[in-house]
């Protein structure tokens, strides 16, 4: 089975083809709109929709061409049905439906966060159920007891800002531009992570929830307090903020492991591409087997949608109508 995957939930237009016979992604293309949104300091939904509309069909053509297959060889189409921005989701869903209808093939709407989670199963070696998942993206921060395919028990989540959102907001405070995560990571390399003692929010609580908005506010007040801000001080703030996030994620993940009998840990989402966070989790969880997707598959991409779609299409699940879900809790996802 060859599955065409389409991702348009935010500001990346991603397309890929997954082949179940070879269990591999045979071709993939990505167009990032980040530079377009940078001047506004964040994603402008209307601009994102228009860009998806412009880029999606050419990317589908290029992906099919690169695969060496004919479009008629495609057996099904998977697209992100949610959660995400309404306009961008609609562009992806309606394009996927149109392609499916023209080929007389099934299409299926995929949960974006399930796709971030499942892409780890494509790696070799790969995790086996049950495992603990930490999903850290621009819209989510979730700890999940991942019992089986489609059985996702949320055991911890953010009460306010998502972790990527905190990176983006702190980058805005430091006037680094959008998207904030990679900019903070680059600047932090030149800074001292011990220079500022920022809070590790909610790590003194027994629960598994997160809260990043107080940490962002702590950075804001520290920054405003400084009369002269050199590049070195900015780098120290970036490094100290990143260290506080990494410590918090590690402490909560450890707590989740101590409360649940799970041996393997899977990390996913855009923030999982952060080198400091990856290192901290690997060294802090040395008794566990820990899995990350390759860096380019942490942030949004079509490969994870094609792959996640294969699990649904394989069981004969397909859409009868066009439905997107801009808000869609992972716990409400149904398989089969
Ligand atoms: O998974 P993703 O591409 O989109 C969502 O599903 O939200 O994640 C995007 C988020 C953004 O907030 C971005 O700043 C953050 O991931 N991010 C990073 C890094 N690369 C992307 N955060 C920290 N360090 C990075 N290197
Ligand atoms: Zn994502």
Task: Characterise this structure.
By secondary structure, the protein is of the alpha/beta class. 41% of the residues lie in helices and 19% in strands. The chain has ten helices and ten strands. A five-stranded mixed β-sheet has the order 3-2-1-4-5, sandwiched between helices. The chain has a five-stranded mixed β-sheet with strand order 8-7-6-9-10. The radius of gyration is 20 Å and the shape is globular. The mean pLDDT is 96. The site of 5'-O-[(R)-(carboxyoxy)(hydroxy)phosphoryl]adenosine (KG4) has 20 residues, from α5 and α6.
Task: Summarize the entry for a quick read.
The protein has 336 residues and is an alpha/beta fold. The protein is built from 10 helices and 10 strands.
Q: Briefly note the structural class of the backbone.
A: alpha/beta
- Summarize the amount of helix as a percent range: 40-55%
Q: Give the bound compounds.
A: 5'-O-[(R)-(carboxyoxy)(hydroxy)phosphoryl]adenosine, zinc ion
Number of E-state strands: 10
* Lateral strand order in the biggest sheet: 3-2-1-4-5
Instruction: Provide the β-strand percentage band.
Output: 15-25%
Q: Major β-sheet, in short?
A: 5 strands, mixed
What ranges have pLDDT less than 50 throughout 5 or more consecutive residues? none
Distance between the termini: 18 Å
| Average pLDDT reading | 96
**Which shape, going by the Cα principal axes?**
globular
């Amino acid at each position: 089975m060859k599955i065409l995957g389409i991702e348009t939930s935010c500001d990346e237009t991603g397309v890929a083809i997954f082949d179940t016979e070879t269990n591999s992604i045979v071709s993939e293309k990505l167009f990032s709109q980040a530079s377009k949104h940078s001047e506004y300091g964040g994603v402008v939904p209307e601009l994102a929709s228009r860009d998806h509309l412009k880029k999606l069909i050419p990317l589908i053509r290029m992906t099919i061409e690169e695969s060496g297959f004919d479009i008629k060889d495609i057996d099904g189409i998977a697209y992100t049905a949610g959660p995400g921005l309404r306009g961008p989701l609609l562009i992806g869903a309606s394009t996927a439906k149109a392609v499916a209808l023209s080929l007389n093939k099934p299409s299926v709407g995929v949960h974006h966060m399930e796709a971030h989670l499942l892409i780890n199963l494509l790696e070799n070696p790969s995790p086996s159920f049950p495992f603990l998942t930490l999903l850290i993206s621009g819209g989510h921060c979730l700890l999940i007891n991942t019992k089986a395919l489609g059985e996702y028990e949320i055991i911890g989540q953010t009460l306010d800002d998502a972790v990527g959102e905190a990176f983006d907001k702190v980058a805005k405070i430091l006037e680094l531009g959008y998207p904030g995560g990679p900019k903070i990571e680059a600047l932090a390399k030149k800074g001292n992570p011990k220079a500022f003692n920022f809070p590790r929010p909610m790590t003194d609580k027994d629960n598994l929830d997160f809260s990043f908005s107080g940490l962002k506010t702590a950075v804001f007040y520290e920054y405003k307090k400084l009369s002269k801000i050199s590049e070195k001080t900015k780098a120290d703030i970036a490094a100290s903020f990143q260290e506080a996030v990494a410590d918090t994620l590690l402490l909560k993940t450890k707590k989740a492991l101590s409360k649940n009998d799970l041996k393997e840990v899977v990390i996913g989402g855009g923030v999982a591409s952060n080198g400091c966070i990856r290192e901290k989790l690997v060294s802090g969880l040395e008794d566990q087997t820990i899995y990350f997707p390759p860096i380019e598959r942490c942030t949004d991409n079509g490969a994870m949608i094609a792959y996640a779609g294969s699990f649904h299409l394989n069981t004969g699940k397909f859409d009868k109508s066009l439905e997107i879900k801009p808000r869609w809790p992972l716990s409400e996802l149904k398989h089969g």
